[in-house]
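REVIEWER CHECKLIST
Item 1: Sequence provided? yes
Item 2: Single chain? yes
Item 3: Sequence as submitted:
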Amino acid sequence: MALRNGAQGEDQMSLKDSIAFVDEAARAEAEAARDALIGAQNSFEGERVIARRLGAHLRDGAAVFGFWVPELLDANVPAGDIFLEVLRPSEPLDLTRAHQTIRFERAWIPVVREEAHCFTAVTGMQAGTRDRVGDFYALTWRDAEDRWHRILDPLAMSLPFGAMAPAELYDVDAMQAGRGDRAYFEALAGGEGPVKQGPPVNILQIHVPTATAGGTLASLTRHYRRLAERVSRDLPLEPADQLFLGYDAVQLLPVEPTTVYEAGPDFWQETGDGEDDLTVSLFRPDTTNWGYDVVISGMATVNPVLLESGRPDELVDLASVLHTFPSKPKKLILDVVFGHSDNQGLRALNGHYFAGPNMYGQNLDYQNPTVRAILLEMQRRKIDFGADGVRVDGAQDFKWWDAAAQTLRHDDDYLQAMADLEQEVAGTRYRPWFVFEDGRPWPEEDWELSSTYRSVIEQQRDDDVFQWGPLTFAHNTPFLYTFWLSKFWRIREMVDVGANWISGTSNHDTLRRGTQVSPKLNVNTRLGNTRMEILDKAYDNPAVHILTYVAMPGVPMDFLNAMARASWGFIRNQDDRYGVKVVAEEAISLKWQVDEYSYSVPQNFRRLKALGFETRADLARFLEFLPALVEVTEYNLSEITRLLNASEPALAGPSEFTEATLKECARAWMDDMHDYCNVSNSLPSLDADQAAFCLAVRTFRRERPWLRENYGPEDRFDYLQPIEGRTVFTSLRHGPDGERIFTLAHMEGKPTGEIDPLSLPVPGLDRGTWRCALRTPPIGSDYEGGPIDLKDAMALVFVSDP
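Item 4: Structure as written out by the authors:
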């Protein structure tokens, strides 16, 4: 059903007749900007004041707009050639349709210019809400040849057709007023200053498009609402329910707009252009992306691909359901990406935002005071959707060029400014909890050895700032023999200083890296009978869960796809130039994540099958050739296709490989893998014992928040010696109330043979009475203690009460 919008009837006024420029209000905005720059302590502080006024706002009965446009100064564009372009649908616009052609009425509104800023104010514009599509807008300017150029709003709060299209004027106050978790935020309020949010006990990391069959925020919200109802009514919990429960917080992979199709089609395509109207072919955004390929523009709002209704209210709805969850509210953590921009950002933002290329695309110019202020303002608006915490991606990439010393320096002052930002939701001022992913000196070659993972923690003012720990960062391979013993020095660090680390080995990055490892390496075959079983168990390992949740300090985090034993990878279908190369790099994941049966399921890999890869063997042979040819030809697509066509016997797939069909195969791989990775595919095959065990482990941790702290003088952590072909960790921890917890975890290698856990030579273990509190499957509930033969991935937890 189409949302209500400004479609004109015969008796309604035209757009030009219904809106009006408010000169006085526009000049007041420009005057406020001038005063801010004159009166501020420095230019950055002045720009921070102005940044609060940029974008679109509803104020005193008018829509007020502000833009930072230094490119117009660069081009010497006169003020008389700059306008706000207002677009109103002349017919019902349905944001849930895949494609529609809509005529928009168009009007041009003058602006008031103040140096590099332009402001205007308009009455009569319609703002979007949950139930209504609003007017669209952009800044436009006319050159000397009467050609028009459009400047998009990087601080827009609604982008139904992505960051490369005009924005929708949105009623943010109405969205906030309608939130269902006002009582949650009101209960946080205290004192005169902002409340400081602290760390959760544990975190579930979620990629929205693969978390539910629907793949949207609305679908995920409905799922949590259903879980809440079942929990409140004390109904039996299925494994699929248990998968999502027992977590204090939910961390979403980035939900901001990402790149668009490199070679088209654009989601907003203008097909007819008149003075007073515009005809646009509109496509519902449908890209697939893991979330980190951002263009910076639009960071304050929500990726329309994730919105079932096209309304950013869906993110508020999810926050509300989490915050009102029965028995205990769940916190919402948003993952923000301000350390780089994809090259497509050059299409959406002026060149002053950028400081040159990097391995991801473009560096941002953090030393430009306006850019610095706008980036922080984007963050503030985004977290005001109702997040309790912020995870900062790639903090080691926030750098600036020190010309005097001719070197790059980390911008730790900017990271501090991120953590200092105040939010306001439902009248409550607060500062979120912060987590930084920072592996400096990455990307230096010795970073895995030399990184302390504490560079930000040691410089930030707050004592509850966190970083990703060494077993949470990328490049961890817990399915290779000797991994756990070789990482013991890092685990010792976790024991000593890990209280402010995110712990655990399963996240979007480690699971992706795992699928890129050559299966010819020394794989731990004791984890499973097939590569798929080995990979699945490595990242959903019962013994690792015990290690993470019971033995280790910090805040444990699990990745939903890993816990569901669903697949995962680098999912991005927008590339045209390098799409084939990306698939060649991902090709090895076929060996780890897809077996013959999985490929044969009719709903799986439909696009690749339609292209001629009817069996897994067909695809596997093609994916053996492709990476080798990409390398030897130095990614020459023409030569790659020639060699593919010359292979004997002929490869399966298209009747002839051309650059176009090769790109089609790459796109099919990405789209099929995206569908294959959806967690809903794995729910029917969840192991009931494993799901129940994992929930019990999470509950154990939540009941003992003191386990987050570093080891004390009486605590012990070690491995059984002599090694004798296996790595078995032991841990003894002492709680503040006198409770003691002993953990024995077989991480890898040969069976222990019959051993009595409570008779091991661990100092302090011989005192008190112990009971078995946790047992990994397949150890039965009848085991209470005594001799046992522990095998790979088996662990026990004993508790001695005060």
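Item 5: Key structural point noted by reviewer: The mean pLDDT is 96.
Item 6: Recommendation: ____
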